[in-house]
Design goal:
Length: about 250
């Protein structure tokens, strides 16, 4: 019962896109906004965007930073290091195991509403639909890797969750979670192409609802792949550098 309840608490903790749906609907009822890409943002587009954001957030979220902090603090990490697999693998497996049930619950609610109320805003391009699952997986890798990097800072600071919280506050603004990236000023939107925020969430949402063609979709996925590779490499480097300072025993 506690395990099932925890799962629903985690889902309810990511409902901010539904709140933003109500707020942005109120804003765009008075005036339809035009994004930096020239595409109007209003009406069913608002519904589609934030329902898709809520749904995809369930599929690519990660809490590895908090898990690493706890295991460094209580010494559990020492036991993981004795096992014949790298700690990243069980951490990733544990978090991926949550995704099917979280996705099923979110799909039953937000997915159904998305199809019923904003079906016309969803992409129908076969190439884009083929890029979508790849993009969602890469978004998870980017988020998981960043969690590993910030979690590894606990080797030096003893507690790095507040740093991760600060990063998440910035992520919520610039990833498309609260505000579509296309509504930012053009120069800022272009600058976000060189930062990881959008690749953690915004790109798969945009593929689902923004009407990109296949070429544009796969170009965005290629950029995601570059960020995922760089961030995962950085995570390995930060973790193994931090292990030199790890002295806890027990668990």
């Amino acid at each position: 019962m506690a395990y099932r309840t925890e799962l629903f608490v985690w889902i309810l903790a990511t409902t901010m896109p539904l709140v933003m749906l109500v707020l942005w609907r109120a804003v765009t009822e008075e005036k339809t906004l035009i994004g930096a890409d020239g595409i109007p943002f209003g009406g069913q587009k608002v519904v589609a965007y934030f329902l898709a954001t809520f749904l995809i957030r369930q599929l690519c979220g990660s809490w590895a930073a908090w898990q690493i902090n706890q295991e460094i603090k209580d010494g559990t990490l020492a036991l993981r290091l004795l096992r014949p697999v790298h700690p990243f693998l069980p951490w990733a497996t544990e978090q991926l195991a949550y995704i099917p049930l979280r996705g099923a619950v979110a799909l039953a609610g937000a997915g159904t509403a998305l199809v019923v109320y904003a079906r016309g805003e969803l992409t129908t391009d076969v190439l884009v639909l083929g890029a979508l699952p790849v993009s969602i997986f890469l978004a998870f890798i980017c988020t998981f890797s960043l969690n590993l990097i910030f979690g590894s800072l606990a080797f030096w600071t003893n507690q790095s969750t507040k740093i991760m919280d600060a990063y998440n506050a910035i992520f919520f603004v610039f990833s498309g979670y609260l505000i579509p990236v296309t509504l930012f000023p053009r120069r800022l939107a272009e600058a976000l192409d060189y930062l990881p925020f959008r690749y953690q969430l915004g790109v798969p949402v945009e593929l689902l609802v923004s009407g990109y063609d296949g070429k544009t979709a796969w170009l965005l996925v290629a950029k995601q792949a570059v960020f995922a590779t760089l961030l995962l490499t950085g995570a390995f480097a930060a973790f193994h550098r931090g292990l030199r300072r790890f002295e806890a025993v027990g668990g």
